[in-house]
Amino acid sequence: MKPYVILNAAMTLDGKIATKTGSSEISCKEDLIRVHKLRYEVDGIMVGINTVIEDNPKLTVSKIPAKKEDNPIRVVVDSKGRTPLNYKILNDMAPTIIAVAEEYTKTKKVKKLSKYADIFPSGKKHVDLVKLMDYLYKKGIKTLMLEGGSTLNFSMIKEGLIDEIRICIAPMVVGGKDAKTLFDGEGFNYMKDSVKLELKDSYNIDTDLILEYKVLNSKSNNKTC
């Protein structure tokens, strides 16, 4: 079993989610409210370690009225256990789960992290995302919001673990071959291997365009979860 996974992100018209310097202020104020409403609705929210290190996010509900208990469980995919001990992801505003590779579970850093978060080991050198999804489902996370970054996004969709994509497209272009796109990773070699989507809804929020897609090859949609 796995949670129903919604990838939510904002990108520029040319598909960038951050510039080469890491600047990622893309969404308008109204779209940020939409994002926090989604955080309010889901059971968990997941990011990769690079997002944590670069942005130091709290991953809580703050743009709309909410109580502490309304915050989703925070999940970090952190194979090597690099999450900084003084970062906001480890505060007491919500529980945190850190998924690490088995090879790194006995390091001093991971042992220290275990004082602030639940540690889930899986995979030898890299986190086994399929096993992680099963673990999260058993922990009561039936709906999971994925906020990337780009490498984790691709790993998740390659495994068929994303059910829905909600994307905010802002009317701007930044370019740059080193700027991060919505999906990076190794990519597919041929277009025939690409992940297929079905557009379910589209609408505008201020100057931004919101597109909502169903992922056609997800394990939930194929009834294999």
Using only C-alpha atoms, the radius of gyration works out to 17 Å
Low-confidence stretches: none
State mean pLDDT (0 to 100 scale): 95
Write the element-wise H/E pattern from the N-terminal end onward. EEHEHEEHEHEHEEEE
**Class from helix and strand fractions:** alpha/beta
> Strand-residue fraction?
25-35%
If helices are DSSP runs of H or I spanning 4 or more residues, what is the number of helices? Answer: 5
Shape: globular
Distance between the termini: 5 Å
Major beta sheet summary: 9 strands, mixed
Helix share of residues? 10-25%
Order of strands in the sheet with most strands: 6-5-4-3-7-1-8-11-10
What is the strand tally?
A: 11
Description:
With 225 residues, this protein is an alpha/beta fold. It contains five helices and eleven strands; from the N terminus they run ββαβαββαβαβαββββ. The strands form two sheets. A nine-stranded mixed β-sheet has the order 6-5-4-3-7-1-8-11-10, with helices on both faces. It has a two-stranded antiparallel sheet with strand order 2-9. Strand 5, helix 3 (108-113) and strand 6 form a beta-alpha-beta unit. The radius of gyration is 17 Å and the shape is globular.
What features would you highlight for this structure?
225 residues; alpha/beta
What's this entry about, in short?
With 225 residues, the chain is an alpha/beta fold.
